[in-house]
Structures are given as structure tokens and as C-alpha cells.
Amino acid sequence: MDMNVQEKKAGFFQRLKDFPSKLKDVVTKRVKNVLMFGKDDPRRIIHSMKVGVALTLVSLLYYVRPLYLSFGVSGMWAILTVVVVSEFTVGGTLSKGLNRGFATLTAGALGVGAVHLARFFGHQGEPIILGILVFSLGAAATFSRFFPKIKQRYDYGALIFVLTFSMVAISGYRTDEILVMAYQRLSTILIGGTVCILVSIFVCPVWAGEDLHKMVANNINKLANSLEGFEGEYFPLPEKISNETNSCVREYKSILTSKGIEDTLANLARWEPGHGRFRLRHPWKKYLKIAGLVRQCAFHFEILNGYVLSNYKAPEEFQNKIQEPIATMSREAGEALKAIAKSIKTMSKDTARVNAHIDNSKTAVGNLRIALKSSYPETDKDLLEIIPGVTMASILIEVVNCVEKISEAVEELSGLAHFKETLDPKILSAEIGQHQLLHRGTVKPVLDGDNGEEDTDSSPHVLINVHDEQPPATTGKNSLGVEKNIV
Amino acid sequence: MDMNVQEKKAGFFQRLKDFPSKLKDVVTKRVKNVLMFGKDDPRRIIHSMKVGVALTLVSLLYYVRPLYLSFGVSGMWAILTVVVVSEFTVGGTLSKGLNRGFATLTAGALGVGAVHLARFFGHQGEPIILGILVFSLGAAATFSRFFPKIKQRYDYGALIFVLTFSMVAISGYRTDEILVMAYQRLSTILIGGTVCILVSIFVCPVWAGEDLHKMVANNINKLANSLEGFEGEYFPLPEKISNETNSCVREYKSILTSKGIEDTLANLARWEPGHGRFRLRHPWKKYLKIAGLVRQCAFHFEILNGYVLSNYKAPEEFQNKIQEPIATMSREAGEALKAIAKSIKTMSKDTARVNAHIDNSKTAVGNLRIALKSSYPETDKDLLEIIPGVTMASILIEVVNCVEKISEAVEELSGLAHFKETLDPKILSAEIGQHQLLHRGTVKPVLDGDNGEEDTDSSPHVLINVHDEQPPATTGKNSLGVEKNIV
């Protein structure tokens, strides 16, 4: 027992000794995490600094004597406004600032009117009239916030309306200097709002519209990566069969539920003035349409993913037959998406390249049909066995259709948003034709540690095996497809 | 010309005459719309009234002389708190109220500390020290709002922290009564917050948790309606072929993008105390899991919908073969979902009924496989023609798998949330067995104006044709399935 107590004591002292170093470890880990988080998107750090700067600027209303003498304690409304209006994006700040400004103005005026009206009813009647007015306007404005259109754009304004009206009307009961008070508050709120908006626009601005623009392009890129990784997942190289799936095939996942963020960004983007490549009335709604189509495509991918994950595989012979057209289909559709994403990012039209890739993938759809037809099952048992493969192929064909719809929507956007024309289409399609000839055959992603020779193509991680196993009909159709593109 | 002028004049007077009646029309239309909107969810009107009541209550701080003498103009903080903290749900109000209370307390204390610290540096150094403190704490707290965990639960608290600290620290520079001011503000904020929380909880409360609970059950019901309407869409009765799709088949659409609302509700539900059938630590996270599975199922439906909408139909012979098992599958899976939804709504276990329906739909999956096998294509052209039908059937099988997963997740929930046990399982499964016998054969929804005889079953809009066309193997399997259920 004594030994035990001694051991415990020793253990306690040991822990006491270790405590500082452990604490240091925990703290350094936390600090590292925070720094990593800041590095992830340095705009977050910049935004925090901007809020600090805006706060320091409005605090001058207190520190500088002449300013304090003219505004007095109303300076606190400037501080309050800065804290509440400072949003991450310019659109957010403008939306809140303008809402706050107009709501304060109208509610303030109405409040002063209410106080004057109530005074007609004598000292006894005044609080009753004020109470009725505050109750009814407060309830009505609160109810208006439930209407989707008001909620979307003027929610904050309605809130501030209730706030200001109630405060002016109620505190007007106890002060005679209501107009001075209203003037001081309004002017400090305007000062706070203006400081915020200026800092937001002129110090490293974060534009909601630009974020939406990039997000849509990135989502299309994610889809492209998922499509291009699909073959490697569904037809893995023998040495690679494992339960781990390639992370790039999962990239589409975040698109499934991104609608909320996109809607918010589009809503804020409408408040923003023209900036950089975006004019004042940039067609933000079109981005939502494209994003919807991209999401539709991601839904298809979610279902496809189920087939990739299922342990059930179609018979090898059938797999071999459909592998080549499926590989071409997903690769070409993926490249079309990459071209579309690049076209959005650079805001330049690239219709020829996109259409060429889409045509190639459609040709591959034709080849897939031929391959499916040629894999006519010999027994009724075989029919059941190929059903999952057939379903997978069928959904992938739908994905190609989705890609075409996305390209049409982006074409529409490129017209409305004045995308600039780029390369001479003739040179381009000749280039793609060559590219296509290089690509004919089976393309498999090279794995780490795989000793396959790297090709000299622009995409460094692709290994091309040109083999003769493919049915002659398929190859014929394929080159036909390419010729069609050059025209 | 003269005639023209006269005509114009007459037209103008006419319009002037019509104006009041037109205005009346517009106004009545608007008022009707608003009333309709309120009727849609009367809780909106009640909430607006509640905000009005809370505002009237805190305005007593101004109207009642003794209260005004003790709190002075700080009463406006109570008004501000009521307006800002009043959220639609109890969880929202509690989350904002508690965040505001704690943030004001800590930031107020730190602010008073900062003012005392700054006074050591003399009148020249005071604003500099205060400025540095406000800048750094403001920036740090703003940065903390980017962390997902803080954003989710303490975003408002961090905002109020910056607000209070800045206001106390900056205005402390100009007043010597800082402690009195801090006390008055804190107490009025506590009064405002308490009034809000009490009104929110005790006057017709809207619980976020209950909303989430109902929403999940309703979404499952929507899926069930879509499933049950599927057969009628895909195999329309000859006299019904039209491009209009039944609205109930589209019900699943809203589920595709409901993640945001569900997450918000679950987040708010965690702030709520135990109420009614929900204990304090109700497993809200499990609802999100179920909602995720329901959404997965809706994704499948979105793809199925593409097949319903496509004009391409499989050959009639093939359609006839797969119609019966597909009808049973979708109907039984739909009934399983309805039973699950009811079990959630009533918070009572109904495992036997759910499992019986799932087993029935699985038996139908088996029959579908047999039907597919028996529709072994005679030529390779036929194979291509049945592909869309095969894909559709294949996705529908996945839907049945989804339904099973949903039922498992709800089973888990029912254990954690202490759902009550209901009927004696034996009686129930006998009842379902009988029900199943009645249902054997093809079930088609009865159309308005259709003179088919109505059955005496519980669902009044279903017409049952027991016919002999089905392959004997199918019928055998089907009754086998039923027997399995009775055991």
C-alpha cells in the first residue's frame, strides 16, 4: 500500500513536471491549426484586419475632441453599425449598409411623427397611443419578413425598421430633444456605414459575384475530375484493386448540396457595382441555371458511384467490350467540361474546342451502343449478369447529355456576359483532331509507383496503350467522329 | 384631330373614374394574398404578435416612472435586445439570447478592464492603448467567426463580443461612470432577453426540434407519394397518355435541396429544453442521418424521373412483362415508407408492418429479375431497345435498397428516442398478409371519370385486376413472400 502511495505521488510530480511541456505542445498545435486555417484562405485574415481598421476609424468619433463635441454618445451607433454591417463580401456589406441606412431613415421619420401624434393625446394617452403604434408596426414589419421576396433582399432592413421605430417612438416619450437625437443617430449610422462600405470596396475587396463565378467554374472542374477518374475506378488496373477509391472521383460530392451557398452569393452579387470583368448588370441568374445543371449532373454521378462501389462486377468479357467506348466517353466529356470551366474562368469563348470534345463523346456513345449490341447475351442468365453494367453505361450516357446541356447554358452566358472570342476555330479543331489521334486507344491513369512510360502529352499522368483488340467497326466510327470535328 | 383629342380626354376621365375601383381591386387582391400567406402557416401571424407583445412589455421600462428612474436611457438596450433576439423558433431565440447574454457579460468585463488598464498610460497614451486593444480583439473575434464550429453555434456571440467590447472600451474614454453604465446595460439586456425567451417558450412556442421531426416525416411521405405515383406515370392507362405529369410524382423534388434547412433546424433544436415528447438530449443528429438517406433516395428518383419524361418507351411486350413486379415493388416500397413516416410522426414503433412491406417489395425485386430473365431478347436490336427499361428497373431496385436503409436508420432512432411499442406484431403481420393477398395482381390507379369498379380496400383509389397472365413462377414466389411475412 505504501509503495502504491509513493508511486502515485511520483506519478503526480511527474505529471506536474510534464505539464508545461504538454501545455506548450497543445498551444503550438492550436496555433498551427489557426495559422493553417488562415493560410487556407488569406482573405479571412485580411477581412478580420479590415474590421479592426474600420473600428479604429470610427472610434475617432470619441477620441477626437471636436468630433465628440458634435456627436456625443451617439458615436456608439457608428461603432455598432461598423460591427454589424461588416460582412465578408462587398455585396453583403452593401446590402446590409443600404438596408440599414434606408430603414433607419424611414423608421426614424415615422418614429418622430408617431411621437408628435401621441403628444396630442395628453400625458395619460401618450403611452397608450405609442404602445399601440409600436405593437402594430412591429408586428406588421415582423410579419413582412416571412415573405420570401422580402426575406431574400430586405430582411435586415425590416429588422432595423422595427428596431429604429420602436426606439425612437418609445424613448421619445422621455425626451424633448427627439429631433437632435434622431439627427445625431442618423448621421453617426451613416458615418459608420460609409466607413464600412469604403473599407470593404477599397481595401482588398472580396466580391460575392467573383466568388460565384469561380465557384461555378470550380464545380464544373470537379465534375470533370470525377468523370476522368471514373474509368480508373470502374475498370481498375489489376494491381490496383482495393477498396480505397480515388479521392478525385469523389470531388463531385460537394456539388450535391451547394445550392444554398450559390443562391446566397447570387443574391449578394446583385448588390455589387460593376468591377473588373463584371459589369453592373452581369447575368448572375444564368450562373444559377448553370449551377443547377451541374448539380443535375452530380446527381447522376452519385448514382454511378453506387455502381462503382458495389462489389458486383459484370462478366469480364462484357467489361472488356464496353471499356473502350466508356473510357473515351468519360474522358471526352471530362475534357469538354474542363474546356467549359476554363472558358468561364478566363471569360473567353471556346465553343469549337468544347463542341469537338462533346462530339467525340457522342461518337463514343454510338460506339458504346454498338458494343452493347455486340455483347448480345448467349443465355438468359447472362442477361441478368450484364444488367448492372448496362445500367452504369446508360447513366453515363445521360451524363454526356447533361454535359451538352451545361455547354449550351454556358454558351448563353458567354453571349450575355460578353465573353471575348479567342483562337481561330480552324487552327483549334485541327489541333484537337491531332490530339484525338494521339488519344485513340485505352487511356489509363498512371499510378504512383507504376513503372509505365509517361507520354509526352500535356496531361502528364495519363498512359496511353494503343492496342488492336478493339472491334474494327468501333475504330471506324471513331475516326469518322474526328473528321466530323475538323469540318 | 379634334375628335382624337376629345377621345383622349374622354379616355383620361374614364381612367380617372375607374381609378378608385381599380385601386380597390389591387388592394383587395394584395390583402387577400397576405391573408392567404398568413393562413398557410398561422404560426407566422402568432410570431408577429409575440414580437409586438415583447416590445410592448419592455417599453414599460420607459413608461413606468420608477423603472425609468433606475435604468434611464439604458432601457433602449432592452428594446434592441427584444428586436434582435426574437426568432421564429424557441431554439433560435434561446441560442441568440444566451449568446448575447454571455458575450455581453464577458466582453463588458474585459472592456471595463481595458479602460482601467489604459488609464495607467496617461491621457496621451490612453486612446492609443484602447485603439490597439479594440483593433486586436475585434480582429481576433472576427477571425474566430470563420471557424465552422464557432460559426455554427456561437457566431452571434462573437459578433456581440466585438460590439460590446468596442463600445465599452471606446466610450469608457469619455465617461467616469463606466461601471454604472455597464451595470445598467447588462441588466436591461438581461431583462430584454428574458422577456423574449419567456414569451417565446410560453406563448404558442414553435420548437425547431418538432419542425425537424415533422419535416423528416413529411419528406419520407413525399418520397412515398412519388413512389406510389411512379407506376401510373411510367405505365399510363391508354386513355391517360398526356405530357402532364402527376404532381405527386414530383413531390420528392423539394427534398433534393432541403439539406440547409434541416441542418439549421437540427442546430437550433440542440438549444431547446425538453418539451412534449422530446427529452432534453433527443438524438437530433440521427434525424440528419435519416434525412441524408431520404435525400439519397430522392437523387435516385431524380434520375428515374428522366426515364419517365423521355419519350422513348421500351417495346410493349417487354413493358407488360415488367409492369406487374415493378408495380408491386414501387407500391410496397411506398407503403413501407408511409408506415415509416407514420411511425416517426406518432413516435411509435411499427417494425413488423414496415418489414412486411419491405419484404414484399424485395419479393417483387426477385420477380422482376425473373421477368427480366424471361424477356431474353430475340435479336441484338431488341437488346438495345430494352436498355432504358432495364436501367429504369435497375434504379428502382436501388430505391428499394434505399428504403431498407431508411427503415434501419429509423429503427435506430426509435431505440434512442424511446418510441413506444404498438400493436401485437402477430396480429399485425396476419393483417398485412391478408392485405397482400387482396393486392396480388396488377394494381392501377383509378382515374377520374374511369368507370372501373372500386374495390372495398382501405385505399379508395386503387383498382385491382386479378388476372392469369402472370407467369406461374412469379405467383409462386409472391405467395412464398407473403408466407414469409406471416411468420
TrEMBL record, chains A, B:
Main location: membrane
Cellular localization per UniProt: Membrane
Region (Disordered) residue spans: 468-487
Keywords attached to this entry: Ion channel, Ion transport, Membrane, Transmembrane, Transmembrane helix, Transport
GO CC, alphabetical: membrane
Transmembrane segments: 45-63, 69-90, 102-122, 128-147, 154-174, 186-208
GO biological process, one term: malate transport
Stored InterPro entries: ALMT
Bilayer disposition of the protein: Multi-pass membrane protein
The keyword Transport is annotated on this UniProt entry: yes
Domain of life of the source: Eukaryota
Coiled-coil blocks: none
PANTHER family (UniProt xref): ALUMINUM-ACTIVATED MALATE TRANSPORTER 10
Family assignment from sequence similarity: Belongs to the aromatic acid exporter (TC 2.A.85) family.
Name of this chain's protein: Aluminum-activated malate transporter
